[in-house]
Each structure stands twice: as structure tokens, then as C-alpha cells.
Amino acid sequence: MSQSVAGRPELEAARLLLERMGISPADLLEVRPARPPAPTFAEYVPVVAAAVSPGTRRAYGTYWNRVVQAWGDRRIDEPLPSEIEQLRAQVQANVVARRNNRGGRSAAEHMVAAPTKAARWAVQAVAKAGTLGVVGVYPQTVTSFPFGEAMMKNLTVKSGNCHHRRYIPELLRLVSNDTVDPAQLLTRHEPLTDVLGAYRQFQDRDPGWLKVALTV
Length: 216
Known about the structure:
Distance between the termini: 41 Å
Number of strands: 4
Number of helices: 10
Structural class: mainly alpha
Helix content: 40-55%
Order of helices and strands: HHHHHHHEHEHEHE
Largest sheet: 2 strands, parallel
Radius of gyration: 22 Å
């Protein structure tokens, strides 16, 4: 038997790791079609505007237009949480002074709330007693969610980043006994000065950008 062929302990460790990650061997053999790119804000905002009520368009249309002005040619999955916060602060700082604008806070809240109407649509679309999964990165400025409607439909809501505490102990054990070599997952090594470009290519899922190591 060739030394490159994994033995029984290695296979068992691989099966355990895949099981903890929720991946089956069949998933590894499945060839997934390339995901189409997300639309730009200029393409998607008119679709959203056409799908909502006239009252919603009046309330949020101005802020949707500001998003299009700022990011019209960018895809809707591109802006980082820090960029959303910067745009929110910019809208709040440049709001026209009115007696009831609360120092621009209303404008900032409407601007941030506009893209997150997807949460309300998702709750409305899920069947009663169903499960709603929230993926992606939501900034801390997002503070509203239709909890009342979700509760009345007996929905289960699951969200969050990677469950590190669940996986790290077992992963550390596999690394410490040389069962798994995490260095094999690193497909790119980039200098820290190119971190923004590296993140962009990783986010765009360019070929060869599985995991990136930044060198100092």
C-alpha cells in the first residue's frame, strides 16, 4: 500500500471531522454549479421597490436612493459592516435639519432598516412552526426584528457566526496528534499590506482562494 493512502485511524478521524461539520461523503462528491453573482444595488433596489406597498416606498425610497448613489455599481453582498456604519453616519451627518428629525437619528435608522426588510419578508414567507436561518454578517446597528410575528407563528430562529466553541477542542486534538494538517487548507499567502485586495478576492470566491494566510 502506498504511504500516501490514509490508514484506518486517519479515515476515522476524517469521518469524525466531517460528521461534526455536518458534511457527508456524498456531499464531497457532489459537483455544485457555480453560484451566479449577486445583483448590484442599482439592479436590485428597483425590484424591491416594485414589490412593496406605496407607503413603504414613501418611507424608505429616499434612503434606498442614497444607497444606490453610494454603491449603485457594487453587488449587494459586497459592503462590509464597517462600510454600512460609515454610510449610516454620513446620512445622519448630512440630514436636512427639521424639528422632528432627532439630530439625524431617524434618517440613520431608516437607512439601516431599509436593507433589513428581508428579515420581515423571511418571517412572513416561512410556514408556521418552521425554522428560519439567518446567515451572513449583520452589523451591530441592526436592532430590529419582527419577533412578535415570528413568535405567533411558532418559528424557530437560528443565527450566528461559526460555533467555534463546539469545534475547536476536537480540531485542536486532531492537529496536536498530527491527524490533520491545517496548513494544507491554506491556498494563498498574502502580505498584510494587501489585506483589502485579498479579502475582496476571497469574498468573490475566486479560484484558488479557499483560505488565506496573511504574513506580517
